[in-house]
Amino acid sequence: MKDKTLKNMSTKDLPDDCYVKHNVTYQTLSWLMIGEFTLGLPLNLSVLFIFIFRFKFWKNKSILLFNIVVADFLLVICLPVRIHNYQHGLRRSGENAVCKTMLFMLFLNRGASITFLITLTIDRYFNVVHLGRRNFVRRLKKSPAFSIIIWVLLLPLTVPTMLQKEGCCNSLGRVATPEEKVVDTLREVVFFSQILVPFVILVYCTVRIVQRLRKKTVGEKAKLRRAVWLVMSVAVVFSICFLPCAVGRAVLMWVRLMKYEEAEVSVVQVYDSLMVLSYTDCLLDPLVYCLSNTGFKNAYVSTFCPTFLQKRLKKNDVSSTTGTNTATTSAARKISLPLTNKGNALLPKV
After folding, report:
1. 186, 233, 257, 291: which could join 160 in a potential S-S bond, CB 3.0 to 4.6 Å?
2. Domain tally, the chain
3. What is the pLDDT of residues 259-318, one digit of tens each?
4. Non-local CB neighbours of 283 within 8 Å, separated by 6+ positions
5. With contact defined as beta carbons under 8 Å apart, do 346 and 339 qualify?
6. Is residue 2 domain-resident?
7. Angle 69-73-74 (CA atoms, 0-180°, nearest 5)?
8. What pLDDT is stored for residue 32 in this prediction?
9. Which residues are registered as beta bridge partners of 36?
10. What range defines the domain where residue 220 resides?
11. At what angle do helices 221-241 and 96-128 cross, to 10 degrees?
12. Is residue 239 part of a domain?
């Protein structure tokens, strides 16, 4: 009885839209997040261990990849709070400080993941499409100061979220003061620009990279297909983790502005479900970006995989790297295009 009273005291000031309307949906979402947390925590901890103690990312110039893993880890440690809220019929915590901390972490994680992802994509674009030209991104991605600057610049983007006084979702479209409308508008601008602008850059770079790779007629087709898969996987992960929640957010805003209160209940559930889908980013990033780096993959396999699996994976690597160097003629001169990650022009550099 005492616990129930304390719970009511902490949630009594929440607006009506903070309480779930269909408990079954949010119970299901909570179990999905439990699965993401159960898989994501050991995966990201093991990847961080390899990066720091085995791969030594600062020596292998994989600083951007390390920052992506850090951003994913920040997301993973936020999931238990979301799980607790959903299982107790709430869309956010009844404690305002906890709620704002969660929003801060989620906004910061999404911004960092997208920024470092796009930086790597631009680097791959120059390595493949503009081979031989000066690549300014290559120097930046090797600099720890550049990564620190990105994290610092992302902090102001979380300010509109911190200014939110109440409400579970953004209140744009609801009754609000002029000051609150300005804050809500800024929040929406940050949210959509954080996803849509990088998505346009990602699509352009990916299309150009794929076109460049398909023009190459020299070399084994299987390796060319693998190179195309690696660059397209970046766009696929982005489309799965970030684009759907942006579409869901846009639909939710439209429904609120049009005052479709009955439809809003269903749209909110869809939007929250898409946000849970976006949390799979913490699972896909280590698989797609980290394990595509040959040096990191070898360190990870030798540390965590059993002996028989290590031999099998090494056998596959040997067979896939046979005939690694091919030559192509461009502008009356020959350029060596190794198909492994070392000095690779075909496979994306990480």
Report:
1. 186
2. 1
3. 887 888 888 899 999 999 999 988 888 877 666 677 787 888 888 877 766 666 666 655
4. 36, 39, 40, 43
5. yes
6. no
7. 120
8. 95
9. none
10. 18-292+321-338
11. 160
12. yes
